[in-house]
């Protein structure tokens, strides 16, 4: 019983580690079937315990979630934006921050708090850091950087309208900015890849560091 439980745990651990990993090249037929020297030299007695079966190879373990991801990508007609995992997570965090800023703008207008509206708009406006990030994220997807930068330029218009204390102009500029959001999300999707694939598709040797910071 203990031996069976240990073997089950081993198989589960192997399946988890092999999920979505590239399939290895199959071994030659003679290497898989030929007996070893020890097997041919020593007969197996009837009382000997059976040798545990070898753990399944990666090509014998298939994570259904991998098939589901492939199927989803085949259904999604949007252009993929290749990103390494840390880059993809950093981008998601930025999108969340953009949504918070828009919510803050709407709330500030409702309260006639023009300083708060302008501050929130500036947090998503143009800056050297935003430009560098958009260029970096869009290296593997034609047109992505231009759309991303257009979003930030439109957000500058929200801040300008807020300084004029013009609620109608702020709302129009916010709507204009959100149009850039919807257009970008309608055209592109994240495609999370490993470092080697990202480098091959972008021509860059960049490797992201932990904590959302990037190596030069």
Please tell me about this protein's structure.
The protein has helices at 2-18, 29-33, 37-41, 64-75, 85-110, 114-122, 128-137, 144-163, 167-187, 195-202, and strands spanning 79-83, 188-192. The chain has 216 residues and is mainly alpha-helical. Strands 1-2 form a two-stranded parallel sheet. Mean pLDDT is 78; it is low at 4-19, 21-48 and 211-216.
Topology:
Blueprint: H1 2-18, H2 29-33, H3 37-41, H4 64-75, E1 79-83, H5 85-110, H6 114-122, H7 128-137, H8 144-163, H9 167-187, E2 188-192, H10 195-202
Parallel strand pairs: 1-2
Helix pairs in contact: 5-6, 5-9, 6-8, 7-8, 8-9
Strand order of the largest sheet: 1-2
| Terminus-to-terminus distance | 55 Å
Overall number of strands: 2
Low-pLDDT stretches are 4-19, 21-48, 211-216
Helix content: 55-70%
Assembly state (oligomeric): single chain
Main sheet properties? 2 strands, parallel
Structural class: mainly alpha
Shape: elongated
Mean pLDDT: 78
Helix/strand order: HHHHEHHHHHEH
Strand content: under 5%
Indicate the radius of gyration in whole angstroms: 27 Å
> What's the tally of helices?
10
């Amino acid at each position: 019983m203990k031996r069976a439980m240990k073997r089950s745990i081993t198989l589960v651990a192997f399946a988890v580690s092999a999920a979505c990993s590239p399939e290895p090249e199959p071994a030659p037929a003679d290497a898989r079937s030929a007996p070893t020297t020890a097997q041919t030299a020593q007969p197996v007695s009837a009382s000997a315990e059976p040798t545990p079966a070898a753990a399944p190879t990666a090509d014998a373990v298939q994570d259904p979630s991998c098939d589901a991801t492939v199927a989803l990508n085949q259904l999604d007609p949007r252009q993929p934006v290749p990103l390494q995992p840390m880059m993809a997570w950093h981008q998601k965090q930025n999108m969340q921050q953009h949504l918070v800023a828009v919510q803050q703008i709407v709330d500030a207008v409702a309260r006639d708090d023009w300083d708060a509206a302008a501050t929130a708009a500036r947090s998503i406006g143009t800056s050297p850091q935003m430009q560098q990030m958009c260029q970096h994220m869009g290296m593997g997807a034609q047109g992505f950087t231009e759309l991303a930068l257009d979003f930030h330029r439109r957000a500058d218009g929200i801040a300008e309208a807020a300084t004029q204390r013009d609620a109608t102009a702020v709302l129009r500029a916010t709507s204009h900015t959100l149009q850039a959001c919807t257009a970008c999300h309608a055209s592109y999707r994240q495609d999370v890849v490993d470092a080697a694939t990202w480098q091959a598709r972008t021509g860059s040797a960049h490797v992201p560091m932990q904590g959302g910071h990037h190596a030069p």
